Amino acid sequence: MGSITSPSSSTSPSEKFPRSSLVTIPLSNKKSEPSNGIYAVFSYKEHANDRNVSCVIGRYDPVTNIWSHECLVPGIVENSILKGFAMVSVGTSIYIVGGCIYNVEVRSQVLRYNVITKEWSTCAPLITPRHNFACSVCDNKIYVAGGQSTLDGAMGVSSAEVYDVLLNEWTPLPCMSTVRYKTVGVTRQGKFLVIGGFTGNTMPFMDRCSAEVYDPESQKWDHVRGMWQLDIPPNQIVVIDDKLISSGDCLNAWKGQIETYDEDLNLWYPLRGSIKKNLLSFSCSSNGTNEGQSSEPLERICLTMAAIGSYLYFMAGYRVVGDPSSCCTMSMVHRFDTSAMENQWETFEPVQFEGERELCSHCCVVQHP
User: Fold this and answer.
1) Is the model's pLDDT at 215 over the cut of 90?
2) Where is the FKB95-like N-terminal Kelch domain (predicted)?
3) φ and ψ at residue 329, rounded to 5 degrees
4) Is the residue at 113 inside a domain?
5) How crowded is residue 61: how many other Cβ atoms within 10 Å of its Cβ?
């Protein structure tokens, strides 16, 4: 792997993404995991001059409710945004796999960021450039499948491959039964699941509702019909206690409740106590405080979730609707305890950022030594 000089912090939007949080509050330490960090990639837009600051890695500390700025993702030209990539972790490293830059290219590049040393390096590239694909880690190997390999998005691909982090090598896998893109990848019971997504089959509804399951031992795919049940691709799926967990689809990331999958019945059903019609539980004043100011309506612009122990963390971002020249983004974290019998939901103090902070990918969790 080749090393990359990490971008200077002086060029990063530190004022927009502070190293120290605007607020610090004590959280419930019940079952807390102080060694975990939740990482996500954001872009920023300053409405006054319509300028984008692209692809900043941020870290959320679940113990202190603090967002901190890590660094810029290297190799992204300013005012260009990388989308459709996968972000996963192996050990103390984050891997940014593939993706596309609008009207420029579909990428095969794979970057590695060590959260301890703060160093970037380039890894072996994907065999097939792709974006909007399924990706997950199984037995410390990175599996990818499906996606789109062209910018026009006319057709997806059915190919799959696996990356060995020790050998720095991608190996092709058998193709899935159909092309899939905008699909979700997750690991469960040592197998790689590719769930839902748009397909190129002549019976799209049947395949969009299905899943493909790759078994590394047999090196074969199995086709599971009706596993997703909706003609709309899922937004994100995680695993807690060997159970698949979802909160919505790609059109509506939050559907008012958390759902889990019953393998015997082949059904998704709500988790007890998870119904929360609106993740927005506060109003924001025009100057960022709630003292003597009229509140502004808020519009959720991003939502991703992470699983740590029995907890589900929902990282939400809200745009303050109003004068575009003075737009700000409110960041709020909601936590749901899947093991509690009551009062499962907690909502933590919001943090305000200047400009519009947009989520570029789903988050990943890194456990620090």
Assistant:
1) yes
2) 78-286
3) -115, 130
4) yes
5) 16
pTM, entire model: 0.87
Q: Total structural domains in the chain?
A: 1
pLDDT digits (tens, 9 = 90+) for 350-366: 888 777 788 898 999 99
Give the strand order in the sheet containing 100-101: 82-83, 100-101, 105-106
Whole-angstrom distance, CA of residue 251 vs CA of residue 103? 23
Q: How many residues make up the chain in this entry?
A: 369
Encoded tokens for 269: 């059903």
Residue 13 falls inside a structural domain: no
Check which CATH number belongs to the domain holding 31 and give it.
2.120.10.80
Share of the chain above pLDDT 70, in %: 79
Task: At 77, list the tokens.
Answer: 């030209």
> What number of helices (H) and strands (E) belong to the chain?
1, 34
Query: What's the CA gap between 280 and 318, in Å, rounded?
Result: 8
Residue 59 lies inside a defined structural domain of this protein: yes
Q: What is the pLDDT of residue 50?
A: 61
Give the residue numbers spanning the domain of 291.
2-8+20-367
Q: Using CA atoms in the order 122, 123, 127, 133, what is the torsion angle rounded to 10 degrees?
A: -80
Q: Is there a domain that residue 305 lies in?
A: yes
Q: Output the CA angle 195-201-207, nearest 5 degrees.
A: 30
Please answer whether residues 253 and 303 qualify as being in contact, where contact means their C-beta atoms are separated by less than 8 angstroms.
yes
Q: What whole-number distance in Å separates Cα of residue 155 and Cα of residue 139?
A: 31
What residue type is assigned to position 166 of the chain? Answer: L
Given a contact cutoff of 8 angstroms between Cβ atoms, the answer to whether 48 and 325 are in contact is: yes
Structure confidence at residue 318 (pLDDT) = 79
d(CA 319, CA 297): 9
Residue 14: pLDDT band with limits 50, 70, 90 = very low
Identify the pLDDT of residue 305.
95
